[in-house]
Amino acid sequence: MLGLYPEIEPYDHGMLPVGDGNVIYWEECGNPAGKPVAFLHGGPGGGASARHRRLFDPEGYRILLFDQRGCGRSTPHGSTAEADLSVNTTWHLVADMELLREDRGIDRWQLFGGSWGSVLALAYAEQYPHRVSELVLRGVATLRVKEIQWLFGGGAACLFPEAWSRFLAPVPYARRSDNLLEVYHELLHHPDPEVHGPAAIAWSRWEGETVKFTPQEEVVSAFTEPEFALAIARIENHYFRHGGWLAEDQLIREAGKLTGIPCVLVQGRYDVVTPATTAWELAQVLPGAELKMISDAGHAFDEPRTLHELISTTDRFAPRWDEHENNEPRGTTRMLYGDEHVRRYEETDGEVGHEWKPGVPTLVLTTKGRKSGEDRKFALIYQEVDGNPVIVASKGGAPNHPGWYLNLEANPEARVQVLADKFTARARTVSGEERARLWDKLAEVWPDYNEYAKKTDREIPVVVLERV
Fold it and tell me: Of 140, 273, 278, 447, whose CB has the highest number of CB atoms within 10 Å?
């Protein structure tokens, strides 16, 4: 199962004036010469976070994140009196994106958007299709009346009645059958903090309690931080009251404009915030769209199988960028290490990662952790001899054996992947003449093994992985 890439810091960031008194925060991470990708956060009003940087291979992507008008580090913040929501609309944000693209000197970029971010991605791509290389959309929405009514008109309440009761708590009982978006508009803009504060927390908590397949307290806590809650509640309510300034079905009706743009839709089957029907309906009319329906997921991007599909998709799109001077696609020529090597190898059945360096093949070995009992995966150099892979427990000549070898000593049964060939094997450590013969074969592929042997007092094990 693929997970987030390691933590990274921006190599550049700044504030971009976009007009109407608004200044948006932006940052760039990863590879300045990589494939441009813009992360479009949810809400609207949710803001981008450090975790969002980790959805992309930092070696292959030039990762651009920004906080949309009124939220995150952009100013003025939606929780303040200075924020003018009349100049915060879908089309203002589309214009901001185009201004940011030009400011950063980007010709075309991949758009990665989840929830509200998928709406913004579609709106931008239908306006500027020639500027979009791919679309990766998660928790797909188009802001049709039925989508908004589902979440704020009682549909989702049938699944989360306790959370819905907390959403209704600030609403006077006599008005609970009214249009709740309009009632909440009054509450959120009431001058008394004792009125708009609890209303904002109740609004934001509703989303925090429904966003995960299994609600999590830390998520609810983040959504109910007062300043965050007031900004996202006011901005979301503003957008939803106006249907995102989109004609009904506009984004679906105009999907034909996206012909030729690769698009992947990753959708949780049990997404309560943006129900699966929208992703399915969009996939029927979006030319060439690939729908990934996740059977055990809700709305959040970091639910395990949803995250796996998102990382798989961004990894798959990364090597399609420009080419090196030797005409090899970016991402297939650079050396891979550790978890990233295993991830790319498994994802591509060894198309990426099998040849670690020219003439140096690798396999993926899965052992059982000797203490944890959990799967432990390693990418290792090998040679095939008499139909079985042979590997060396060198650890660079360190004084102790590598962890994978200690795992095999405790439990010699393992799983092996060589390119697309996956099989169960039993590990056997060889000795004597057999070891000498196999050592020579491995040293032909990786001569440094001879140097490693000189650095350590231990006899470096040579292991045959015999097919079961």
Answer: 140
